[in-house]
Amino acid sequence: QAKKMGRNTVCFFDPAIQEVALLRATLEAELRQALVRAEFSLYYQPQVNSSGAVIGVEALVRWQNPQRGTVSPAEFIPLAEDTGLILPLGRWVLEEACALLVGFAAAPATRELHVAVNVSALQFRQTNFVAELLAILENSGANPTRLKLELTESLLVEDIEVAIEKVIALKQHGVALSLDDFGTGYSSLMYLKRLPLDQLKIDQSFVQNLLHDSRDLAIVNTIITLGTTMGVGVIAEGVETAAQLDLLINIGCTLFQGYYFSRPLPDQQLHEYLQRHVLA
Ligand code: C2E
Ligand code: MG
Ligand code: MG
Ligand code: MG
Fold it and tell me: Domain EAL: where (predicted)?
């Protein structure tokens, strides 16, 4: 029947579309099971200063499914947002990050390290987000000043006044705040004016071609100057080569994260890395 209608007609039973919907539904169902089956794990990527000393780590979630293998967060975070699953998942990530902080606090060499956690828009927009976060911190015994939340500009736009209130409340409790993927979202200097941020995180897309694209260099230079002048820290993400690092140091960047230093590491490997780079 569909064939008879020819190639250019809209077909309501397009098997290709049906297949996409089915694949998505299957992925969604598996994602729901994943929390119960403990298929999520956190990897940690070191953040370093210009002397190469580790100052903290960013927690990055991974999904290991027996059939699918490792699924990238770029694939499942959007789906987890659509389905609301990001709420229990985000809570779990915060609990894990706090447990790591408690571990760090127990040893003099790691006591000062912070853990950065990505927060999704849906999670941040929950009315009780701040209260829930404070409860997680209190239950874990983690030091709030060692927890850093990575927020994105897109997460702030929906209701800027409410967002500012939340950020100020978090800040008052000592939680550190970083603006992730800076420069790629609905960038507004108003956020910088009104939010008590601790850090701007230069998006990796600007770092990638820094040596060969004068526009990227101009943007990175401006972000560093802006942050430095305002007394807000600046970290560059996606640093992959020594040449990128040298250039970034030359233009005044003081904090770095990227494959050049380390890929995101599972718990055990992180501890081995820290043995070599912090506890040495
Ligand atoms: P992001 O927060 O901007 O994290 C940086 C991403 O860049 C990570 O990808 C990291 O593995 C990758 N990366 C780090 N260094 C380099 C480098 O030198 N070169 C390149 N090419 N890439 C580098 P990942 O782990 O796949 O995470 C992707 C995104 O998924 C994150 O971007 C973040 O937005 C989101 N995400 C990850 N974990 C969580 C989480 O626990 N909660 C939420 N809400 N989102 C998360
Ligand atoms: Mg991040
Ligand atoms: Mg980022
Ligand atoms: Mg990014």
Answer: 24-278
